[in-house]
Write a structure and sequence with these properties.
Mean pLDDT: 91
Number of helices: 13
Distance between the termini: 58 Å
Largest sheet: 8 strands, parallel, barrel
Helix content: 25-40%
Strand order of the largest sheet: 1-2-5-8-9-10-11-14
Shape: globular
Length: 466
């Protein structure tokens, strides 16, 4: 059943035939980083089922997020996007999801209180199951099998059956995303996220760590402020819940296309797999299938820009993805690396000048700072991560542009995957709890440490503006 017939039958607004045809134009553009399914009939059956399932998000929610991101482009809010590098089906337990949400909420409180700005809270959750890979195949001990591309494609176990590209995993990803979103909505609207419970969010974490003591001190200050407001007769309804949005890299185009729906209000297409979708550094070519597809849906979208990105690249992408210059529609997520950001980002911003005032600039300080430890672990140094964040803020302050947010890989668990930080994880310490299936993540302590440092950068901006 094609999209126009589906929504005509449902009694909703129709999209034009040109719009419907455009949603499939990517198929002729040789999309990169796609799975190789051996059974076309099996894939077709899965996609038919995905076209019929309920949406994971709604168009109105995506529009609301776009408005919040627009505020960040003007310096009136700050975007915080955080979560797993690659979600796994096995880790979608209630406790694991709660800890990730909890970590983002705590970071947001620190940033809001320190920077005097509302924080737009986005989780790399409920859809971040696919990962691009530099090689299609992996060899171990003379055995070569397909690379692990995330749970939505295959399994991490190194066996021929596990590494087969299985289309049924697309449905599994949808169902896990659905249950994850249900739980996130329960946490963020059911009282768990109430600002009066800031002390409770610290329960269960290592009380001996200096960042937790620092957080408790901030929580006591918030308590005093809330008691003062209560004495003044303030209405606390607004602090009893938070808006929390979902995001992932829109990598598997068959999945994204099958979950595209027509908005009943306008007849416009929205990708209902997540609120915010981004295009990775490997797939952002102007004539790529990913750029073409995301140019046709109305969600707020992001594009990763690495150290080789030029002003011409950015301007061309903006014209293609955001031809109307709509604030909140397009976010550029820079991932330069600590060693080069102070050279590359100022040049990029300077060459663009004032031609993209509507774009929101966000820093991904993770992907440009990956190294291999002497003990063989894929890791990052916390000082490099924070060095890139500092370079990001300095470049924007010097250019007179707005540092609009952070996009980071984190977990709420006490893992040991990133070197350094206040907990002083060393190379031997990586062995203790190295659990990631793909990229190393900040643990809860390191995430809080980052939030406190970034809050100081935001405070410095407030001082310079006044």
């Amino acid at each position: 059943m094609n999209t126009s017939r589906l929504y005509e039958a449902a009694g909703q607004a129709e999209a034009s035939e040109e719009t419907i045809a455009g949603l499939d134009a990517w198929r002729s553009l040789e999309p990169l980083q796609q799975p190789t399914y051996q059974d076309a009939e099996e894939l077709a059956g899965v996609l038919d089922r995905l076209r019929e399932v309920p949406p994971l998000i709604f168009a109105g929610e995506a529009d609301r997020l776009r408005d919040h991101i627009a505020q960040a482009s003007r310096g009136e809010a700050f975007v915080l996007a955080g979560g797993d590098c690659a979600e796994s089906f096995a880790s979608a337990s209630a406790d694991a999801i709660r800890r990730r949400v909890q970590t983002v909420l705590q970071m947001a409180v620190v940033l809001t209180y320190g920077g005097s700005l509302p924080v737009v809270k986005i989780g790399r959750m409920a859809g971040q199951f696919a990962k691009p890979r530099s090689s299609d195949m992996e060899t171990r001990d003379g055995v070569t099998l397909p690379s692990y591309r995330g749970d939505i494609v295959n399994d991490h176990e190194f066996t021929p059956e596990a590494r087969r590209h299985d289309p049924n995993r697309l449905l599994d990803a949808y169902h896990v995303s659905s249950s994850t979103l249900n739980l996130i909505r329960a946490f963020t609207t059911g009282g768990f996220a109430d600002l009066r419970l800031v002390h409770e969010w610290n329960r269960g974490f290592l009380g001996s760590n200096p960042n937790y003591h620092r957080y408790e001190q901030l929580a006591r200050e918030i308590d005093r402020a809330l008691k003062f407001m209560d004495a003044c007769g303030a209405d606390f309804d607004a602090i009893g819940s938070v808006q929390f949005f979902s995001a992932h890299e829109a990598l598997l185009l068959e999945y994204e296309r099958a979950l595209t729906r027509i908005d009943s209000r306008t007849g416009d297409p929205y990708d209902v797999s997540g609120h915010f979708l981004w295009i990775g550094e490997r797939t952002r070519q102007l004539d790529s299938a990913h750029v073409d597809f995301l140019s046709r849906v109305k969600n707020p979208i992001g594009v990763k820009l690495g150290p080789t990105a030029t002003a011409d690249d950015a301007l061309a992408l903006a014209y293609k993805l955001d031809p109307e210059g709509e604030p909140g529609r397009l976010t550029f997520i820079t991932r330069m690396g600590a060693e080069v950001i102070r050279e590359r980002l100022p040049k990029l911003l300077g060459d663009i000048g004032d031609r993209l005032p509507q774009v929101t600039w966000v820093c991904d300080p993770m992907h440009g700072n990956t190294i291999t430890s002497n003990t063989g672990y894929k890791t990052r140094r916390f000082e490099d991560v924070m060095g890139e964040v500092a370079g990001f803020f300095d470049a924007h302050y010097d250019a007179g542009t707005i540092p609009g947010g952070l996009h980071i890989e984190l977990t709420g668990d006490d893992v040991t995957e990133v070197l350094g930080g206040a907990s002083e994880i060393d190379e031997e310490g990586l062995r203790r709890r190295y659990e990631t299936l793909v990229d190393p993540r900040l643990n809860h302590d390191q995430s809080l440490e980052m939030a406190f440092q970034v809050a100081e950068y935001l405070t410095d901006r407030q001082k310079t503006q006044h």
